[in-house]
Amino acid sequence: MKLGQWIGLIAIVLSLYILWQIREVLLLMFAAVVLASTLNRLAKRFQSSGMKRGFAVLLSVAIFFAGIVGFFWLIVPPFTQQFQELTYRVPQGLGRFNSWLDTLRTRIPSELLPYIPDLNSLIQQAQPFVNRLLGNSFAFVSSSLEVVLKVLLVLVLTGMLLANPVAYRKVFIRLFPSFYRRRVEGILNKCEISLGGWITGAVIAMGVVGLMSVVGLSILHVKAALALGVLAGFLNLIPNLGPTLSVIPAMAIALLDEPWKAIAVLILYFIIQQTESNFITPIVMAHQVSLLPAVTLISQLFFVTFFGFLGLFLALPLTVVAKIWVQEVLIKDVLDQWGHHEQETELVIVSKYSEVDDPWTTETSVIDKEQPIDDVLSKEE
């Protein structure tokens, strides 16, 4: 390898190392891009009705913050009340369980008594875990503050991108060679369309799942049905894992009333998720984004391994964008063109001569010397 090639290789390795070190910052920037694209799409809808750009952006941002405030207003108060109820219901349940164990000891043979667990011994064994959990409370608070700072950073970046998206788009395009910039602009357009389609489909599916959850929980007379339904719809943005997370608080609250309600809630959520995955999502996403289920699951495992919870939350939009770049750059521009350059070089060499003799036939094709080379190439092709 020559000196210039060594320098290029070292520069590529250093660039990859730096990108890996700042991967969390890049992920936050991508989250800001997704949010800005969503709000910009909404602002364009308002602009199409005759509204000016500034007012359309302000209205889109106002709707976004109203949705966030409404979400926490619906979720936090009911869950706070239910958590307070759990604090005195759990000791009651433990007391009932202990009395049930005492009754069981009187009815079974003495040989089986050592195999029946003692509640007090279980509490003593769990005591170190509780102490460790309380000891890590400061770390939990510090991590919560870190999450708040990251959210503020994403919101600030979103505002900057939303103020003048064309300028940032041009800066990104100029990072590529001049001959490839028009191609990059076309790829960015496809990414914007696909992200917009994914967002539209995800919002529709989220609304349907939330509505079905609210109706089903209300029929079962489960407390905080509205809050649980909103939470189920929001967690539906995380495929595969989100539905599992949403059923846990619903079953816990249903268990406070009757044990059979918890089982009924589990069956209800299973039916809702089957309906969503087999009917709602295929219909909504049919003309929006086409991703194989295995690709979605593998992407979730990949991004949650390297980026944590934020990577899990952004796994689907990251996969959508990555699919477009791989399909357009790697497959169409590299793999599909592999081996075509030799054929084009042959044509250029042949077209330099005024007379081209074909050794396989007795015919001779004559080319006008004054004819432009481009016309010759097009005819030869």
Description:
- The chain has helices spanning 3-21, 23-48, 53-107, 119-135, 137-163, 165-173, 181-219, 225-235, 241-257, 259-284, 293-307, 309-313, 315-335, 340-350, 373-380; strands at 355-357, 364-366.
- Strand 1 (355-357) and strand 2 form a beta hairpin.
- With 381 residues, the chain is mainly α.
How far apart the termini lie comes to 37 Å
Strand content: under 5%
Biggest β-sheet description: 2 strands, antiparallel
On the 0 to 100 scale, the average pLDDT is 75
**In sequence order, what are the helices and strands, one letter per element?**
HHHHHHHHHHHHHHEEH
Strand order of the largest sheet: 1-2
What is the count of β-strands? 2
What is the rounded Rg?
Answer: 31 Å
- Shape designation: globular
Derived from helix and strand composition plus strand pairing, the structural class reads mainly alpha
* Helical content class: over 70%
